């Protein structure tokens, strides 16, 4: 985990950039193999993602549900914990937000949406809390438990959507459209950008502050660096682990809440096509740095928004190219980090050998 | 209770379980050697895709399954290169490969099956075992399946024999429990882990192939739909033990089979609770029986 957080900002920026460029080049080869002109495809994607105010707005909306979970995953990784379950936390977060709207419909505007977002964070936090407790107090790897909680969360949400929360008489799996009191207001005329984008943008410095400037941040980095040493100096290691995972889940839950209270306006099945898994890739590409994560989220938000502009025969192709490039970028990043580590070790060995000769 | 309905549910649980048995036994072998494959889902999905691709191209089911195995092994190869050569964390590699395979197979539907869309491969037909298939209930449940179902059961026994009764199996367990000690005893840890990982890829690929080639004979987007994760859970719930893993798979797919026939059985539980059951019981088992069964000590840690 330690090597995933960058030592030098400039150097890590360079490695991530090269990885992304290689991934884009590989994506071009793939598009070419599928009979597309890669340059025209990318140009089309760029104009669909950035060509107008509306396009930029769409890109920002697609950036938000990737950015927030990725920030949370980075927070947990600082404590040395893998939150593989952001996808599930997104779904239960969305359900938590919608629950407020459905069961307290009389709440007035700013209070309603604010409470709904708090409920979303709480739900996502609770979903990560259980794996946190099992990890801290029973030593059970959080990798497996957070992953298992994904499918429990999605099915629980599906049950609510198809059961008690279904639009009466409807067969399409979705809840009723939420009233205005529970909607994040639109903030940029001529686009679909809602206040959730601002919340996500604010979360970037907030995470930087938590990790870099608070005692909590210092302590979880200590736990992530050396669990045993942290316990020896008297840090509440177990409590910090639980708190870091729960906070991580709250970020993902907030993303789910914003998605349904903002862009979607209702809770519907399958609304997240894997944002929570993509966020793991994004957190790594951003090297756990809040600004790096923001940049990576924006890139993949733009690829997602832009892929709608791809002129291809099958709809599935266009939606698939963004995650392919994303996964390839992380693959190249891992390879680059591996090569850097190997060459550093070789250098060390060589200088040790030279020192030996001098004796 | 209607006996014929119960028989059908049990038989369905066995046939639903077969793809998972291949994948879970592969994962078990790999985990014994210390290699965790979160990308088991991706291996199955690649197998399902390549199986249909190879079967359509060759017209042969045997080559279809061979293609499925190769598809799964390609994912294993990528995992090995990232983890063993570039020393990436196994969790990261696994997550990324799942995203990549889902993307590539979705992309491939249009560009590879585009001209064949809607065409299905020949599919595996059930082989009724003489005499045995005539036994009431048991005959239908156990002895009226495709050849791959019988092979899956043979595989479980073979895996048990390999892990607990051979020198290779002992070395495999050493690589997963105490790689440093194993290395000092002359066990080639890296080579064994590669072997176990590629075996897992081949088997999970065949499991994915079973899903499409013994099913509808076509590939649809994300056809595995989380089955790789259920297989991963089965290895844990089965206590890292071949027979236990088999039992876990059949228990989990029993839930799936009940879900499909819930109405006929007069069960009115919302089906979502049956789908989530494998994950719930796995977490409960981990929480309640911690210590009694545990993962290999060096699981997920690169040597």
Describe this structure in words.
The complex is a heterodimer of chains A (359) and B (303). Chain A contains 13 helices and no strands. A two-stranded antiparallel sheet of chain B has the order 1-2. In chain B, α1 packs across α10, α3 runs antiparallel to α4 and α7 crosses α9. The longest helix of chain B is centred in the first third of the chain and has 30 residues. At the A-B interface, α5, α6, α11 and α13 of A face α3, α4, α10 and α13 of B.
Q: Could you give the count of β-strands of chain B?
A: 2
Beta fraction of chain A: under 5%
Report the sheet with the most strands of chain B, covering strand number, pairing sense and barrel closure: 2 strands, antiparallel
- Total strands of chain A: 0
Radius of gyration of chain B (CA) equals 19 Å
Considering the chains and any ligands shown, give keywords for the structure:
heterodimer, A: 359 residues, mainly alpha, 75% helix, B: 303 residues, two-stranded antiparallel sheet, 13 helices, 71% helix, 1% strand
In brief:
Chain A is mainly α and 359 residues long. Chain A has 13 helices and no strands.
Summarize the SSE layout with pairings.
The complex is a heterodimer of chains A (359) and B (303).
Chain A: H1 9-33, H2 38-50, H3 53-78, H4 86-103, H5 109-138, H6 142-162, H7 196-213, H8 215-225, H9 227-232, H10 237-264, H11 275-285, H12 290-307, H13 315-358
Chain B: H1 3-32, H2 40-58, H3 61-85, H4 90-111, E1 127-128, H5 138-142, E2 144-145, H6 147-165, H7 167-177, H8 179-184, H9 189-213, H10 227-237, H11 242-260, H12 262-265, H13 271-288
Antiparallel strand pairs in B: 1-2
Helix pairs in contact in B: 1-6, 1-9, 1-10, 1-11, 2-3, 2-4, 2-9, 2-10, 3-4, 3-9, 6-7, 7-9, 10-11, 10-13, 11-13
